[in-house]
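A student in our group prepared the protein record below, which I am reviewing. Thanks in advance; the entry in question is below.
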Amino acid sequence: MQKKIAFPLIGLSIILVLIFAVLSWKTPHQVYNLTLASAAKDGEYYAFSQAFSQVVSRHLPRLKINVIETEGSQQNLEFLKNKKADLALVQSDLSIPHQTKAVALLFPEMFHLIAREDSKINKVSDLKGKRIALMPKGSGSYNLFWVLSRHYGLNADDLKVVTAPPKEAYRLLEQGQVDALFRVIALGNPSINQLLQSGKSRLIPIEQATALQLFQPALEASTIPIGTYNGSIPIPAEDLPVVALRAVLITHKNVDDKVIYELTRILFEYRNELIAKTPQAAMIHQPESLKDLGFSFHPGAKDYYYQDEPTFLEKYAEPMGFVLSASVLVISSLWQFRLWFQGRQKNRADLYNLELISLIDQINSAQTIEELKDLRRQLFTIFKEVIVDLDKDRISSESFHSFTFTWEVAIASIRHQENLLRTSEPENHLTEDRKTISK
């Protein structure tokens, strides 16, 4: 009976040992297959994604990245949300849902507005009544064009819009079936380069980036450098102001932390290999801060970015000891300095107020408009000096408020005296005329 029980137990033990052995071997050798949603094949998103996939495969054979072509940022976000992709490239103006996390900020993408030479388009507002080719609906370029056009007072009724994939849009512009084309893309794109080399089209400046930031904080002022698309006969002929935003590599929050850590490490530690395959990688840098960027970063990416940071005690042990030992002396010194500084600020403000009082006396006794103009200039000169002193903490905010009260009295005095002089001028002329008649 005991033998009948013992043999199954021994067999079960052996099976469990084998299972644990297989799992122990499999874990470090597990292959992760990831899908990366990029964009159209002729764009920088796709080129970067392919380069990144190849570099990752070379250094981490157990990580396989399958790059898929998409219509752009909006579709990429949908793929990630529906788990049709594990990674995606999007433009930084998109609002990403909570289940989506950032991995890295990538290269900048520029607004490219290209118009035919014979279109008479020299600025964005000249697009009114023109035919323009846009990227497919749902793409980042399509959505951003309407942000730009609304800022310049253009709506859909003012334009004849044709949406088309990039190659078709380029063909329409070359054949004169549209007057302009808009696309958001990284610098140096071969298709854009070929389009501009024909001499039939040219880049149009896009200004007012700071104003556009009020509606889309992700946007930033940038420049397409002279000669970017041709050096011998420079295209553009001079540095061209445009608007730009960053490409962002994002992932789903449920992707393994260790996988994202390794991908982030490859992205920065093997950046030279990426640059050799796609020059845009040269503009990828680690973020100085993970705060205030508008994105929530994946824990795996955070682990990489923060790996070299010392603990709080390691970082501040010596300063804390020094501050603790010197705190009483410092506080006492600061208190004495504060008293001295406040007295000095008050004395300086008093001098300005005395100047103003003297000017008010001169204003009230002024006999001509020219005198008042000169006194007004003196008032504004004093005001500028006070602003500089306020900025440099030579006077306090309280003293400044006291000064402004006196200064406003002086300005009011000038207006009053000016009105009196202007009112008396006709009377003086009338008196002179009467004397002349009597003679």
The longest strand covers residues 100-116. Residues 320-438 form one domain. The chain has two domains: 88-305, 320-438. Residues 23-28, 430-439 have pLDDT under 50 and may be disordered.
